[in-house]
Amino acid sequence: MLFLMSRGNFELHRFVRASILSVCSDLLLDVKAPILSFDAAVHGHFHPSLKSAVSLPFPYFSSLFVDIVSHLLSEMAFPSSHESPEELAAMNDFRVNIWSAFQPYYEDKWDQELWDAAVARFKAAHDPVVVTRFMKKARLPAWDALEDQMRKGPPAFLRPGWTSPLLGSKTDLEWLDMDKFECIRPSKDDWRDKKVLIIEYWASWCRPCHVVCGILSNIVATEPDVKVITFNHEGIFTKAEIDRAVVKNFIDSRNDMDYPIYIDSERVAVEALFEPGQNLSIPLVFVITIRDQIIRWIGNPEEIAAPLEDILKSV
């Protein structure tokens, strides 16, 4: 993610919204400063489950990194009309000469002398009162904590060149036939009769998940060789209880979810593919060729068209 943030373009908008910040909208990383999702920053929308501190069962996932990114996006990418010219100047200076400039310098690439000089220049260029006010608004940590996180870098799945350990591997799909799911819209039963299987993970609170409902429905309507099965888990990252009424009301309110939908209350689907795949983002799909049960593609359904076309040509 760090390497994308420096571009300041639509790719950042889409990637952040569809990946890390949709994850974070289900987390409370600091009980005094609940994290904002991308959509909260834009629309003032907060996920209702932000009630208690939780931890994610992946050792490389950096909550402080996510916290910093979220508030930087909400305060710097979308500044309100309340910032003074001095605050905006400090904000832009920080974004360009601290945040963006040091994105490539994590782990063994860290340059302490360069960092110290950049921080000193920033502090000298701005009124300390303005800097304190800006950092408080952006909910930035103290300088030593910020330095520590920048030195560590982003979590593994957000780094350039990372691929899921499941991509290209054979998977056991016997779990699909287990009677462990609550069926909302049938049916998954004929998946073995198709050539390609798409498994999606989603939650009703995830706004990027809403966007892809029509995409998946269109695949069902136009690709007879493809089976789409979707699994909902409202607490996919937190293991929170699922409010079935909320899920069902959400589904009933939409007219673009024309595919099998199951609630994965026992986390069978989550533990079978989502967690081993280590791509901590939703919406997320796994595209699998059924004849050999090889995972051919993993990603956001918004980007599925080209890879799905190639996969269908190969089967």
Can you describe what's shown?
- Mean pLDDT is 79; it is low at 1-64 and 73-78.
- The protein is α/β, with parallel strands linked by helices.
- The chain has two domains: 2-158, no CATH class; 174-314, Glutaredoxin (3-Layer(aba) Sandwich), CATH 3.40.30.10.
- It starts with a helix and ends with a helix.
- Helix 6 runs antiparallel to helix 7 (112-125) and helix 6 crosses helix 8.
- Strands 1-4-3-2-5-6 form a six-stranded mixed beta sheet, sandwiched between helices.
- The chain contains 14 helices and six strands.
- Residues 158-315 form the Thioredoxin domain.
- It comes from Fibroporia radiculosa.
- This is Thioredoxin domain-containing protein.
- InterPro entries: Thioredoxin-like_sf, Thioredoxin_domain.
Q: What is the helix/strand order?
A: HHHHHHHHHEEHHEHEHEEH
Number of domains: 2
Largest β sheet strand count, sense and barrel closure: 6 strands, mixed
Question: What is the alpha-carbon Rg in Å?
Answer: 21 Å
Amino- and carboxy-terminal Cα gap: 34 Å
Give the overall silhouette.
elongated
Binned strand content: 5-15%
The chain-level mean pLDDT equals 79
- Give the proportion of residues in helices: 40-55%
Organism: Fibroporia radiculosa
Protein name: Thioredoxin domain-containing protein
InterPro entries: Thioredoxin-like_sf, Thioredoxin_domain
Domain Thioredoxin: 158-315
Question: What is the strand and helix layout of this fold?
Answer:
Elements: H1 2-5, H2 10-18, H3 20-24, H4 38-43, H5 63-77, H6 85-100, H7 112-125, H8 128-137, H9 143-152, E1 182-185, E2 196-202, H10 207-211, H11 213-222, E3 226-232, H12 244-252, E4 261-263, H13 268-277, E5 284-289, E6 294-299, H14 305-314
Helix pairs in contact: 6-7, 6-8
